Amino acid sequence: IRLKSCSRTATMSDVAADVADLKALLARASRPRSRKVLSAELRAAEDEAAALAAAEVEATVLAETPPVAPAAAAAEAPSPPPPRPLPAVTGVVVHTPRATNYTAISSFGWDAGEYNSAYVTIYVTLEGVGSVKDSVECEFKKDSFDLRVHGLNGKSYRLLKDNLEKDIVPDDCKTIVKKNKVTIKLKKVKGEFSYDHWTTLTSKKGKVEKKKSAADPMGGIMDMMKDMYQDGDDDMKKIIAESMMKAQSGEKTEPGMGGGMGDFGGLGGV
User: Fold this and answer.
1) Alpha-carbon dihedral of residues 190, 194, 195, 197, nearest 10 degrees?
2) How many angstroms separate the CA atoms of 186 and 145, rounded?
3) Which of 62, 109, 179, 187 lies at a CB distance of 3.0 to 4.6 Å from 123, suitable for a disulfide?
4) Sequence-distant (≥ 6) Cβ neighbours of residue 268 within 8 angstroms
5) Is the four-CA dihedral 214, 219, 225, 230 of positive or negative sign?
6) Model-level pTM greater than 0.85?
7) Tens of pLDDT along 25-81?
8) Is the pLDDT at 90 greater than 70, yes or no?
């Protein structure tokens, strides 16, 4: 749809007619993009009508104010005329922009992928979201993503996750909108040998502590082992404890669990 903006020299009757036509077109439009264009043109026409009405009032006031003689003006300054109400303009509505109120998306699924897979995948189920596909947007940063859905059954939805467990590559992330689902693909950062391995979606550490761990790979491994010990069941704790004790005594351990890892201070009972 291509519309020509109203001219600033148009008369009040012309602008009022434009407003009526745009309202009629907006009532018939069904596509989101068409409604967006028509709404913008309607707001512009309504603003122009309000400006023309104000200009007419100002011109009327100036025409009805009698000139003041210089001597009288010097003796006593005339009081300004009382303000006159603006004439009513049928069909003109002044729009005031409002902040969007979002409903938080609390239920979603995620998949870290197999070993050396390139993406972490987020699954968000929203009934009918495909009908507002053009109003779905997702902003990616190196350690966060922000999904926003506007105008779905009269509501707007948001899923914001910052301080992700690992950094991502924002330019390579994707958002896929289907009939009743939004899929977000977070591109992992590739290290020297493989893509980063994720165990949680968001980090349990603060951003400063996470940066320190990234700068010290061995420290990151130790932190991961501590998390596995603290969150694991009794069998997992037993395996980790035995491996640590063997490493400290110089015995041979399973690959990846052996020497050079120091101790797990603060694990308790080990």
Assistant:
1) -140
2) 9
3) 109
4) none
5) negative
6) no
7) 878 878 888 878 888 887 887 888 788 777 777 777 677 766 655 555 555 666 777
8) no
